[in-house]
Amino acid sequence: MATPTTPLWEVFIRSRNGLAHKHCGSLHACDATMALQAARDIFTRRGEGLSIWVVPSNAITASDPSEKGMMFEPAESKIYRHPTFYEIPEEVGHM
Amino acid sequence: MYTQALNASESDERQVEDAVRNAAFQARIDDEERIEPNDWMPAGYRKTLTRQISQHAHSEIVGMLPEGNWITRAPSLRRKAALLAKVQDECGHGLYLYAAAETLGTSREELVDAMLAGKAKYSSIFNYPTLTWADIGTIGWLVDGAAIMNQIPLCRCSYGPYARAMIRVCKEESFHQRQGFEIMLTLCRGSEEQKAMAQDALERWWWPVLMMFGPPDKVSQHGDVSTKWKIKRFSNDELRQKFVDATVPQAKFLGLTIPDPALRQDADGHWRYSEIDWDEFKQVLAGNGPCNRDRMAARRKAHDEGAWVREAAAAFAEKRKPRHAAQAAE
Q1: Is the pLDDT of residue B38 over 80?
Q2: Does B310 touch chain A if contact means CB atoms closer than 8 Å?
Q3: Across the interface, which of A29, A42, A65 has its CB nearest the CB of B39?
Q4: Are B89 and A45 an interchain contact pair (Cβ–Cβ within 8 Å)?
Q5: Is residue A40 domain-resident?
Q6: Residue A76 sits in which domain range?
């Protein structure tokens, strides 16, 4: 008998106040409440977090790795977007 | 049947295309780039990793059984709390690893079903019994010690999700080894009977632990291609040697004797050990170890008896769906 699949969730944890939530893994759960409880048990057994987000994995839209070039290459050629592109005489000091 | 010719030419084209992709893939690996789930990868890479990561996950889950055996009989509340936390960690490790394996395209349910059907393997070590409390100390000290030796290089594995899971696992595993060594140290500093119990456990676990690293390099089936793909960074024999070199002084500190009369240190500093009984290893892998049937029966029982929980959770989520949808719409 084929077992029905349980939905997949992505887990994000804020490790300290002031930091952003960071992706730390995924888990299976039937609903959001159980996903939160499972995330607590799986990812924060040693005080790793102060806040958890769980997001249904199928709600995430991801960029296609095979289109990496088209997506990100244009940024690479624009070195004038970086502060080091501009020359400031040393006597001006830190800027 | 009318499109056979078409299929043939398509497959030729695909082979040419795959050769190009394979070369690009290997170049990324050689460049120490990490491979991520949606990247193109050769079918063999996917298959090898699915097999390896799922076996690793099954091992963590089955590994809870020999230790779980002693939770209710731990000699003190301190030991009991630590053992409970350790077994809970093993479960967590299994879950990280299943999640990593799933990113390769096989569902959790399929992976678990393959194990329950006896089609997927788990580490041979968990088919040995835990007869005394000293076995719990020995498992932490040696089994987890061997696992750490094996897992540290996996933190640099070419497959991103596996490497990341291993980093989490390794962080937690160090507590396991230390709690095991502490149990051994306490026994060795205790009464004659306690020390004898520790020695007996070491004698029973030593050889099975050395087998954990897998067949010797000269016969290992998966070594070459895994090394090429940087799934594996060290060979079975290299890791085994590292483990022996690290463990011999620890046994000496405990005042225990490793059950290998021929064990000796060479001029190069490495400890040489006797030939391992690979027939025993094969027998255990083939299902004929002391506890294989027990472990499988326990896993199947837990899975079957938990079925109602999974069904109830799914039914409850289904029932609440309209309410959640209504709340979201507000």
Answers
A1: yes
A2: yes
A3: A65
A4: yes
A5: yes
A6: 8-92
Please tell me if residue B313 touches chain A, with a CB cutoff of 8 Å.
yes
- With an 8 Å Cβ cutoff, are B85 and A45 in contact? yes
What single DSSP character describes residue A82? S
Output the pLDDT for position B79: 97
Does residue A68 fall inside a structural domain?
Answer: yes
pLDDT of residue B6: 46
Give me the torsion for CA of B305, B310, B312, B317, rounded to 10°.
Answer: 170
Q: What is the mean pLDDT of chain B?
A: 92
Separation CA B162–CA B97 (nearest Å) = 7
Nearest to B154 by CA among B139, B165, B145: B165
CATH number where A38 lies:
3.10.20.520
**What's the ipTM?**
0.83
Cross-chain residue pair A31–B36, CB shorter than 8 Å = no
Contact B327/A at CB under 8 A: no
Chain A residues inside the 8 Å CB shell of B316: 30-31
Domain total of chain A: 1
Q: Please, are residues A39 and A11 in contact by the beta-carbon 8 Å criterion?
A: yes
Q: Please check whether residue A2 lies inside any domain of the structure.
A: no
Q: What is the interface size between A and B, counted as CB pairs within 8 Å?
A: 54
Does residue A76 belong to any structural domain of this protein?
yes
Of the candidates B15, B13, B37, B39, the residue with the CA atom closest to the CA atom of residue B27: B39
